[in-house]
Structure formats: C-alpha cells, structure tokens
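For reference, the entry.
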Amino acid sequence: QVQLVESGGGLVQAGGSLRLSCATSGSIFSVNAMGWYRQAPGKQRELVATITTGGTTDYVDSVKGRFTISRDNAKNTVYLQMTNLKPEDTAVYYCNAVLYQLYKDLANYWGQGTQVTVSA
C-alpha cells in the first residue's frame, strides 16, 4: 500500500521558519507531480505549492517569496521550506502526490497532515 507521511510541523513565533517533509513508501514505480495543501479550522483546503517532475513550481500568492517547495526524486520525497511565517499560515498541512504503481494507472494520494501553528 502507498503511504505518504508528513513531518516537521510545530509551534513557532511569527517570523520563524519550519521545514516540512513528506516521505512516500510502498510499491511506487514513479512519482509524478507533488504538492502541499493546507486547511485551517472552518476553511476550505487550499493549494499552497506544487512541483512537477521536471521541477516547475507554483505557489499561492500569499506564500510567494516566503515558501519554497522542492523534491528529491531519488527518495520520492517532497519538502516545503517555510520562512517568515505569519499567524495566517496556521493550518494543517497535507502532502499530495500523483504517482504510478507498476501496471496500474495514475492515482492521487494524500498524507495524514502535520499541524503548523504560528503565534503572534
């Protein structure tokens, strides 16, 4: 079974930094696009950042210049470096991956989430 496990969340003061990691495991043949989403209490889940297999990145406007998404294709792992964190960044952050399993079609997988809390 394919699993995605996030780590690196925590409690930080405004202006601080955190680095989130998402490790994949299971019978994975190849990982396509990967991304990070977040969801605050009472809010819709929103896309934060994505990265293609070729390294092309996109970010939601609110995090541009502060967050950096990257990936290690050899490890099938995606990272989110977050700097200058703001209280409005507080949310549960979810890892997402679109990937291939051998002899199967593309499928979308989600991690369980990691809490990021930014205090004023």
Remarks:
- The chain has no helices and eleven strands.
